[in-house]
UniProtKB/TrEMBL annotation:
Signal peptide: none
Location of the D-glutamate N-acetyltransferase-like C-terminal domain: 149-342
Domain D-glutamate N-acetyltransferase-like N-terminal: start-end pairs: 64-143
One Pfam family named in its UniProt record: DUF1611_N
Organism encoding this protein: Sphingomonas telluris
InterPro entries, per database record: DgcN-like, DgcN-like_C, DgcN-like_N, P-loop_NTPase
Protein name per Swiss-Prot or TrEMBL: DUF1611 domain-containing protein
SUPFAM superfamilies found in the cross-reference section: P-loop containing nucleoside triphosphate hydrolases
Amino acid sequence: MAQEARLQRGIESGSASSGRLPQPYLLFLGDTVEAGFAKTAFGLRDWAPDLCVGEFALPGAQVTVGLPQMRPADAADKGARALVIGVANSGGYIAESWIPALVEALEAGLDIVSGMHAKLVCIPELRYGAERLGRRLIDIRTPPANLPIATGLKRTGKRLLTVGTDCALGKKYTALSIARAFADRGVKTDFRATGQTGIMISGGGIPMDAVVADFAAGAAELLSPGAAPDHWDVIEGQGSILHPAYAGVSLALLHGSQPDVFVVCHDPSRSCLLGDEEFAVPPVEEIIDLTIALGRRTNPAIRCGGISLNTSALDASEADELCRTETARLGLPAADPIRRGPAFDALIDECLKA
């Protein structure tokens, strides 16, 4: 029992500040073949590049984030202090084939940071390796204790929520881009992270998909408390309200965050749901209508501020044309928040409109 207690002290809450995490990182890609399941690695590369030393992939991996490839010992020599599991696979499990590589990281002197549902400390090889070597196993996907049940009562301040036609298509990137754009305009803004990558980037938040269902909307209320009338919380969305697997967390976020404005995130190159290919991606306008209908329960004034298009598969001229076409078709500004430009400025104008 004493040994178990010592090991449990190595686990840290997902609400912990990123300053308490051992940095910089080596990003572990495992044997991933689908880029959408490596969103943690991509998110850290794009939004915290100064914290990323390199990447470490297993044979058979078909995904790279474009960082120098190195083994854990090489990364430690370059100053890395932790290996971050950069994969967010369906179900959040740690594959048996990864364990030797994770043990190698411990032996190289690195702590391990994970945002998976599976807990590092529950894997015997990692638990005893960390104990033997004096390393930490840090699970980000750990919600705070004693979460409240939602009240549904309206709070002060303003809120924007990103929603999606599918999972892993840009809700986090959109929220971070909008929060940055609001701040650039002098608007009082906080980015509110609801997933493991956002928590690693911002230093705080609640991993919504790890919260017991009855308390999920309450967690969303706690994440975005009452604020000054001119203050905006930009809340990272999760899943999709029409995804057969992940709709529950999406609806809890919608009711609990009570957004004044929402932005629909969509990948026009995707026809089937990621990880659930038997289902087609729903039309943007269906998500708009459904979000308004359900969101009115806790905020009757909810409205759509526009569309965030993931145009990474298109060249610049194709992306511009798609944004123009969708703006005209939907009567709402459509933009790629990573490409930015006038279309994105119009989206920000619409979101901030009184």
